[in-house]
Please model this.
Amino acid sequence: MSLRDVRLRLPVVALPPADSRRMREPTGEVPTPRLAVWELTLACDQKCIHCGSRAGAARPGELTTDECLDLVRQLRDLGVGEVTLVGGEAYLRNDFILVIRAIREAGMACTMTTGGRNLTPARAEAMVAAGVTTVGVSIDGLQPAHDRLRGIPGSWDHAFAALAALRAAGAAVAVNTQINRLTMGDLKGLLPLLHGAGVRGWQLQITAPFGNAGDHPEILLQPYMLLDVFEGLGALLDDAVRLGVAIWPANNLGYFGPFEAKLRKVQKRGAHYKGCSAGRAVIGIEAQGDIKGCPSLGGAMNVGGNIRTASLRDIWTRTAQLAYTRERTVAELWGYCAECYYRDVCRGGCTATAEPLMGRPGNNPFCHHRAQQMHAKGLRERIELVRRGPGDPFDHGLYRIIREAVDPQKRAREGAVGIDEPRVDRTVLPMGPGVTVGSG
Model:
């Protein structure tokens, strides 16, 4: 896509100044990425309504096999220790086994995340023989919720069949689950099924409002619902410990509530959230060679360069887009996050949740601590869609945050007591009427 094409898109995020898109000298010590999350292809065999990358068809100009193998070399030279292959569906590329083998021969661990719809026993055996060690299968709730989200009847059964095929082939298996309005009540019932399927690691995350999910406010959690979510998670964590299933929270779940230490017990870096690791410990790769710090963010504001025009090392060390989390300060926070007690550590939480919601990071209502603080004041926060995204991979619309009374009678009488409008390039946008769906 040309720069002119980018400018003609819906301006949900303004382009950075030209100076920031050029290579520059690092302003401080540059960390070594431990993990690379590599979208091997955007081709997919499911139709998920919560897919952030809007996967389905392959991207135009995806990397050739030779370019993939050269990228493996560059990842090794950069010091990456683990490469996680994602999609779309990585197994839909005919050369994905060659890529796996090259990653292992380069001395890096190779893992994979999949929806598993067509992950046959033969594919599972070939993957493990090539060097895949652990595969995470996406299972979102019990069968009705999962199949509705995935858009394919029978997808839930295929996901469990994939787990069985992978275990039979000798892979370690894990599951990742998105928490949203369709799945939040399914977690307790899903846990024993995962345990019975041999799963001993379970990653939980909330559905973030970008890509397809941003077009479906009816499935997104409202921020005030986090109170109910974490009440259920407290008991779920106890059950998981009893069964020997380690729960691993993703970057957008938690933030300094009373369950924080319990929730992050299995994470080596400590018992509380310590800020976004994108651009510090993690690097993201899109299938056509674009390099970014966060695997879940795309667009000109977040892509540092392309390996067809620059080396991976130069993009990692010398672009502002990948240095963002290394250099951000509390001065970039706004709304409640700017006054929060934990602002110096948290820095607004997950950028891939806040930026797609509000147009720029630094104000994130999807925070357990924040929901509790609001509730203590008799308030709650909800989000309201005001502009849809243009329909591109990793795009987003815009939402506003509305603060209102918890008490329904007071809420009906007083209406909103505060509104945070979305911001683009530090400018508050004038918004029209919002789309309120199931605000309660």
In short: The longest helix spans residues 226-243. DSSP finds 16 helices and 15 strands in the chain. The radius of gyration is 21 Å.
